[in-house]
Amino acid sequence: MKKISFCVAVIFTVLTATKAQNSAEKIIAGNQGLHIGGYGQIDFNLASRDGTIHKNGILDVHRLVTFFGYNFNEKASFVSEVEFEHVTEVYVEQAFLDYKIKDNLSVSAGLMLIPMGIQNLYHEPPTYNGVERTNVDKYIVPTTWRELGISLSGRSIDNSLNYQFMVVNGFNGYDDGGNFSGKSGLRGGRQKGAESYITFPDLAGRISYYGQPGLNLGISAYVGDSESKAYDGLDLADEMAVASADSTIIGIQMLGVDARYQKGALQLRGQYIIANLSNTDQYNAKSSTDLGSKMTGYYAELGYNLLANYNTTNELICFARYENYNTHAEAEKATVINDAYNRTDITIGLGFKLAQGAMFKADYQLLSDESSENKKGQFNFGTAIWF
Amino acid sequence: MSLVKIKKDNLISELQFGSKQKEFCLMQTKNNISKVVAFWAIAFLFFSFTSQSNLLNTKDWRKIEKKAKTTYHLSSVNFSELTINNSNGKGSFFKIEEVGYLAIGQAPSKFHQFEYFILFSNKGDILYVEVLNYRENYGAEICNKRWLQQFKNINTTSIFEFNSSVDGISGATLSVQSIRSNIWKVAQELHTLIKQK
Asked: Which of A28, A74, A153 is closest, CB to CB, to B56?
């Protein structure tokens, strides 16, 4: 009996397998299965000596991210990224279930990246030049910016358009005290999906256009109020208490435009982000901080693959980038504008791509701000991987 | 005639497969029930794999037909499937009348798979490439028809020439790499098929 069932099993297996091999449709097979991947960057930052002051170099496994995705069937798939930052900190960077309503439209729920600018969405280290992410995407867009919510994403291939709209929880602007600051903007308020709470839902969206070959244009927007623990258990009939809680909220309107262009050996990219913040005077008074009412940041980068005309698939990209980010572009009456928050970075460097997902990087950054004539230099070396 | 030859090859491989099966059965008769269960499970997996397969729908075929008509200046087209004796093949191939070939391929994008088709000349030169079903926003840039035109008459004999004539797209690194290497492999498979003729 065993023998028979075994032989039947083998024949059955072989039959179904050969059927799969020989039919025209074999390659159009189902998409079920587990996807494993990951990315990471390991850095060595060496600040130049500041006059006679010595600075130690820093070596860091900056981030290591493991990707697990599972396609349950044609329509349902799960995506997760678990991140180790500086070895000891563990975060969930993405975790959402995606349901395909149509081939070109899907709805997702869970922890997702806010579609703002280039690097928050495309943050795998071999996809950008320079060892560190751009500071516009650190101080203005607080990358990696991810929150919990629902997203609708789709595309119109005929019109070369991608779009995404999201309803998410906002920043944790105030709990035991204020989490925003003049220097770091909204960065301290990211909830990262860890016991997040919501007072008001926020909206985010992005549209990108790729109708010209090699050119990718994007517009991103984010609108909403920050969240506040002062609202939890608030008696809405108590006018004094409501007024006090209202002063812990920041209204946020962020808008970004970006462009990437690639043609042969040439790579160009640029981004401009503007964030208007309201209610900052009340917030700053309540939290004793110095949040600005307008933040801006932009960069322009030129890259060139020196090996484009050689018989190799490796790439040696030299690049230069000019970047300005100002978390105090404007401030309300009670806050004095701090010129030290108006920062400019000039970065020049090299990237050696051994494969599309493996890269050695080296660059030199000249960091300055408007408060003084001093410029600080820093060398960065890094290993960047993505698979 | 090539078709006959292919069929013969098929037959031989089937015969070989058959005899291996028999040996296998004899070898395994003494083994316990867990192995039987395991093989049933594998068989089931294969079955579910094929039964879940997502065939090109009529809309896709209509698209292919329409494009084939304009590309080859035909008033009606007939696709006759070529059987290939290569289980690791990347593409499915069809002869289009006496004018060329159609290949249908599937390749991975970031999280999903997409399908595309290529129209070849009789000599195996690429005339047209189009993506049929792209299932995510990441990398959708590769569906741009003007970008795909780079593959028209591309050199499919030198991999270096081939790779360096395809411009990358930032934001679509994975999908560019995926469709590029897939088209290369499918073109090589077709070259082999044509040689066999």
From this structure: A28
